């Protein structure tokens, strides 16, 4: 393989082949064979090179895996309609296809329009006639005529990735002045603060973490980043302390505070907020090595595990497919995320790099948040598990994000 | 939808459309480039190696970030799903499985000959699942079918005392018609079914009701007691369990109560039963065989009821209650234990109504639940005289040959404190034996006076206590009373609110005590045991109603009650002879009319009458006898409240019981009018 790699470099590709270390070797190998190696220096377009296979395979498998899980959930949970899940996948495929065909590089110079789009998306749920309240959040809209509900903040995640990547790419990997850094942070604050008004802390956190990763990768100085993170932690602590102190304004809602308290000690309230966490942990743990099998999940199937098809879908998966199934899921996500990071390392365009960084971070963080809350290492938030959780908005956006990565690959050679 | 809303939506859609169009067709235009403080982007291609290197290390950092997320999740999943999986599996299992207990039949209660006094009968019970309450139509139909108010049906179904998943009993003892209708209309009565459950049944009706006792739903106190670890009973009750609440049902609860079966079910989060799993069959309780002879018991109850009715008919309007006991003196077995008025234990089956309870515990019904044989406390009256004689002889107050002169009026404590003998005509010169036979009060007034001035002023009390008065016999029945033997110390405390003169023990107290009147209280069972002791020269077996316990398993292993000597009193044979002769005289010498009732018996009887002064117009009459005189086997006692002298009521009951024992009914018709006490 080393020989192949060297050979590839010798072909004069501008792609940096030294890689990210050993974990990239496998994907480098595949890329060399499928994509990069086939890429002729003439720039002639060959069909299979327009698809980034190492990322596509785990993505397709994840969607299929998710479909199996939702199918099993549909056996016992009435709301988990399998056809609707397939519809979400179909919509996602359409979105992914469109974004794959679309030359994403155009967006780099449209940051103003992206920002406007972001703001509009955040305000859509507040438009009378469109707004629709679900699960205590007003973050939903009901599209007239079709009657479908949609969560615009999900789409805003992707828009924000483009927005922050577009802004960050202009510094070409090195942000020299504090003023520029603060300006980037300021732009990130717009969608973040808007989403907090919905209120949707979970999606807000994803946007914050994704945007922060883009800013960091765009070349922010380490000291600034550390100070910023320190400031955020201090502010967060202040918010929590204020919310817990009687007589002071409570920025956090009581249920949010309860989730934090329960996270610290699940035994506090086993019938209320702690109950969900406890049931999720029991579901995951009782799955054992091989799981209980499709349709045999006692925790999810008998209703002990709430939201088994949406927020707690990982617990259902872990109960039915056991440790083996959990490892398979993590492996597929690993393939998806690392292939994206490797691609970011290989392509030249800073904008493309930062878009890929955004996608990889979004998936990593959502994985951590969703799986983490099911196994008790993260507080409970309503963040769906990408590609698996039931819900058209999430499915559409996540598959479209796969399309975003594919689009970067697709347009890597065309002249900007 | 208001026009403004429509306009806003249209505008929003137009705006979205414009944005989409812009993204698709606006390429190359740079008008929308955000001002980043200096015009064109600074990106200048891949020549800046330092920033390329920076990207690489940052992407490497991102890889570490993502990798460590997956690593942490893997590590945690490893411990949860592989290392501690079994504990989570247990929790999942306990989440979804529930245990429903299935009732075990109580043991039967039999008489000494194996005749069933209490058994169980099948009872058709309509049961319903808890979710039937949600269906109002079904509930209304069910209520109409059973003939119950809808609210009562609802209350019964909502009662979850048997466990959240248990089927709720709606109505017990429903008719076959109801069962057939429910079976034929299963589609209407979903969640409703008919079960055969068991209920307590009393084949002999009210027979021995106070001895048998009754069952009822376990009380919260009993629940608490059974759950505390130091409780001697090994049965852990659940709310709603039927347990013994009185009599033998209470006393032998541990034996009668079976072991509940268990049915394991799988439930969903709302508690609905999804499927049934393993079950353990219930194990019915052991049968209890009593020493009671149901024929003798019936004779005693019939005679008691007949005599009380007769006395009331004679104008003794306060006469409503009484009791009678028969015991085997050789082992303490209670052969009959009757208490009047009585009640039907079947009113307690399936829960007693508050009206029934009120009437049973009301004063006007004369407390039928009370077992007067063990809980009734009366002055012993003249039946105490044998014990007073023992006291006098033992403490040297009198000798077997001492004589006294009875003029009918006694002024031993001075003219101002004169007391009549019951026979105002007087008995002339009498000794102790004759004093017992004719129940001469003057003889005992003299003895009382002797004690009052002697070195042993409490010799009478000590003797009574020696024979077991003032303490429980320890019979195997609940709520036994201990009676009261008054002492100067007791009197001083008891009358604390009176002036010191009336609190102080007087000579009159001793003369009251020596003839069993005043503050002395004894239970019929205590006196029965005293006469057992007299008959058997001091040996008293502990009275008991349990003969044996039969296990329901297999052929039924039997555990038999071993008689135990409760008390052994030593008296000189000469003293015993005096008392025995005196008691025999009561039957055959005191009154001709009385004698007539016993001369038609083939065995010789000894006994004693008693008439306790009461606050009502008529005294409470006693009669205690044992037979045969030479080799005592049975001792029988009876007390009739406010029914007149012992010879007028209680004597007949005792005679009827002896008549049943020896199969020699009383044919004599003469009535004693002499007023012998």
How would you describe this structure to a colleague?
The complex is a heterodimer of chains A (416) and B (677). Chain A has one domain (53-410). Mean pLDDT of chain A is 80; it is low at 1-24 and 33-47. With 416 residues, chain A is an all-alpha fold. Chain A has helices spanning 2-10, 25-36, 53-76, 82-101, 111-123, 152-169, 178-196, 201-217, 222-244, 254-264, 273-286, 298-301, 313-346, 350-374, 392-410, and strands at residues 131-134, 137-142, 149-150. In chain A, helix 3 packs antiparallel against helix 4 (82-101), helix 4 runs parallel beside helix 15 (392-410) and helix 14 (350-374) packs antiparallel against helix 15. The two termini of chain A are 32 Å apart. Chain A is globular. In chain A, strand 2 (137-142) and strand 3 (149-150) form a beta hairpin. In chain B, 38% of the residues lie in helices and 18% in strands. Chain B is elongated and about 140 Å long. By secondary structure, chain B is of the alpha+beta class. In chain B, a hairpin with a 5-residue loop joins strand 8 and strand 9 (273-280). At the A-B interface, helix 5, helix 7, helix 8, helix 11 and helix 13 of A face helix 1, helix 2 and helix 3 of B.
């Amino acid at each position: 393989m080393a020989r192949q790699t060297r050979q590839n470099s010798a072909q004069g590709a501008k792609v940096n082949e030294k890689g990210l270390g050993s974990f990239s070797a496998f994907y480098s190998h595949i890329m060399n064979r499928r994509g990069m190696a086939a890429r002729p220096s003439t720039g002639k377009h060959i069909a299979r090179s327009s698809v980034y296979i190492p990322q596509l395979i785990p993505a397709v498998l994840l969607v299929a895996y998710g479909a199996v899980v939702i199918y099993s959930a549909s056996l016992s949970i009435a709301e988990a309609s399998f056809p609707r899940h397939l519809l979400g996948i179909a919509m996602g495929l359409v979105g992914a296809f469109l974004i794959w065909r679309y030359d994403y590089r155009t967006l780099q110079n449209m940051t103003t329009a992206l920002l406007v789009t972001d703001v509009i998306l955040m305000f859509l749920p507040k438009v009378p006639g469109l707004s629709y309240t679900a699960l205590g959040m007003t973050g939903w809209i009901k599209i007239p005529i079709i009657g479908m509900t949609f969560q615009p903040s999900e789409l805003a995640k992707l828009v924000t990735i483009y927005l922050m990547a577009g802004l960050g790419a202009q510094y070409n990997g090195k942000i020299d002045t504090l003023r520029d850094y603060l300006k980037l942070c300021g732009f990130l604050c717009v969608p973040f603060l808007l989403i907090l008004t919905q209120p949707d802390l979970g999606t807000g956190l994803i946007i914050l973490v994704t945007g922060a990763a883009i800013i960091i990768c765009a070349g922010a100085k380490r000291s600034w980043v550390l100070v910023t993170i320190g400031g955020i932690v201090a502010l967060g602590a202040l918010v929590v302390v204020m919310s817990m102190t009687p007589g002071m304004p409570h920025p956090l809602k009581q249920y949010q505070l309860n989730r934090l308290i329960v996270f610290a000690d699940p035994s506090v309230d086993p019938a209320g907020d702690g109950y969900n966490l406890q049931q999720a942990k029991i579901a995951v743990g009782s799955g054992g090595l091989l799981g209980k099998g499709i349709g045999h999940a006692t925790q999810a199937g008998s209703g002990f595990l709430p939201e088994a098809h949406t927020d707690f879908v990982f617990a259902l998966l872990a109960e039915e497919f056991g440790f083996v199934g959990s490892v398979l899921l993590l492996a597929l996500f690993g393939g998806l995320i690392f292939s994206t990071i490797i691609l970011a390392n290989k392509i030249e365009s800073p904008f493309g790099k930062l878009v890929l960084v955004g996608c990889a971070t979004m998936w990593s963080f959502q994985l951590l948040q969703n799986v983490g809350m099911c196994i008790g290492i993260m507080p409970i938030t309503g963040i769906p598990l990408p590609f698996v959780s039931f819900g058209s908005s999430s499915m559409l956006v996540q598959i479209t994000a796969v399309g975003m990565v594919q689009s970067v690959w697709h347009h890597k050679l065309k002249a900007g | 939808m208001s026009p403004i809303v429509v306009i806003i939506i249209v505008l929003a859609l137009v705006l979205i459309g414009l944005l989409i169009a812009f993204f698709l067709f606006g390429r190359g235009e740079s008008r929308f480039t955000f001002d980043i403080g200096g015009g064109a982007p600074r990106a200048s291609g891949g020549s800046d190696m330092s920033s390329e290197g920076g990207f690489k290390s940052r992407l490497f950092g991102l890889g570490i970030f993502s990798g460590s997320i997956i690593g942490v999740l893997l590590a945690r999943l490893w411990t949860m799903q592989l290392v501690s999986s079994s504990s989570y599996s247990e929790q999942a299992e306990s989440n979804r499985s529930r245990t429903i207990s299935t009732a075990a039949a109580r043991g039967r209660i039999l008489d000494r000959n194996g005749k069933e006094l209490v058994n169980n009968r099948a009872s058709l019970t309509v049961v319903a699942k808890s979710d039937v309450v949600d269906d109002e139509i079904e509930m209304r139909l069910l209520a109409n079918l059973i003939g119950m108010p809808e609210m009562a049906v609802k209350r019964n179904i909502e009662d979850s005392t048997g466990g959240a998943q248990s089927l709720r009993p709606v109505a017990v003892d429903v008719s076959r018609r109801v069962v057939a209708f429910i079976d034929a209309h299963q589609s209407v009565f979903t969640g409703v079914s008919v079960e055969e459950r068991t209920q307590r049944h009393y084949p002999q009706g009210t027979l021995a009701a106070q001895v048998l006792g009754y069952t009822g739903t376990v009380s919260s106190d009993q629940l608490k007691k059974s759950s505390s670890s130091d409780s001697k009973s090994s049965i852990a009750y659940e709310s709603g369990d039927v347990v013994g609440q009185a009599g033998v049902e209470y006393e032998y609860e541990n034996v009668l109560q079976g072991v509940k079966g268990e049915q394991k079910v799988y439930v969903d989060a709302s508690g609905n039963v999804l499927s049934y799993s393993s079950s353990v069959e219930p194990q019915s309780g052991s049968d209890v065989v009593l020493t009671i002879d149901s024929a003798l018991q019936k004779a005693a109850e019939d005679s008691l009821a007949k005599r009380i009715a007769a006395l009331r008919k004679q104008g003794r309007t306060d006469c409503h209650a009484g009791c009678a006991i028969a015991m085997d003196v050789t082992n303490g077995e209670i052969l009959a234990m009757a208490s009047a008025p009585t009640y039907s234990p079947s009113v307690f089956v399936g829960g007693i109504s508050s009206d029934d309870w009120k009437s049973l515990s009301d004063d006007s019904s004369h407390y039928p639940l009370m077992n007067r044989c063990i809980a009734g406390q009366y002055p012993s009256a003249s039946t105490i005289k044998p014990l007073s004689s023992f006291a006098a002889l033992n403490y040297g107050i009198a000798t077997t040959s001492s004589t006294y002169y009875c003029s009918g009026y006694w002024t031993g404590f001075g003219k101002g404190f004169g007391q009549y003998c019951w026979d105002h005509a007087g008995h002339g010169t009498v000794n102790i034996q004759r004093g017992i036979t004719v129940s001469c009060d003057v003889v005992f007034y003299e003895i009382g006076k002797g004690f009052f001035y002697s070195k042993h002023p409490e010799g009478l009390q000590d003797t009574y206590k020696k024979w077991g008065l003032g303490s429980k016999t320890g019979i195997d029945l609940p709520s036994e009373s201990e009676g009261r033997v008054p002492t100067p110390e007791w009197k001083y405390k008891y009358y604390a609110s009176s002036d010191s003169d009336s609190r102080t023990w007087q000579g009159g107290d001793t003369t009251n005590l020596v003839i069993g009147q005043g503050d002395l209280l004894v239970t019929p069972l205590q006196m029965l045991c005293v006469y057992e002791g007299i008959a058997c020269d001091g040996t008293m077996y502990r009275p008991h109603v349990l003969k044996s316990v039969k296990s329901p398993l297999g052929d039924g292993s039997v555990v038999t009650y071993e008689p135990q000597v409760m008390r052994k009193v030593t008296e000189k044979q000469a003293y015993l002879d005096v008392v025995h002769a005196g008691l025999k005289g009561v039957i055959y010498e005191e009154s001709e009319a009385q004698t007539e009732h016993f001369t038609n018996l083939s065995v010789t009887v000894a006994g004693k009458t008693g008439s306790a002064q009461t606050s009502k117009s008529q005294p409470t009459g006693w009669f205690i006898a044992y037979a045969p005189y030479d080799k005592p086997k049975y001792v029988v006692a009876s007390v009739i409240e406010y029914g007149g002298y012992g010879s007028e009521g209680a004597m007949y009951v005792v005679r009827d019981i002896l008549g049943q024992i020896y199969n020699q009914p009383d044919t004599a018709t003469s009535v004693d009018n002499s007023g012998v006490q």
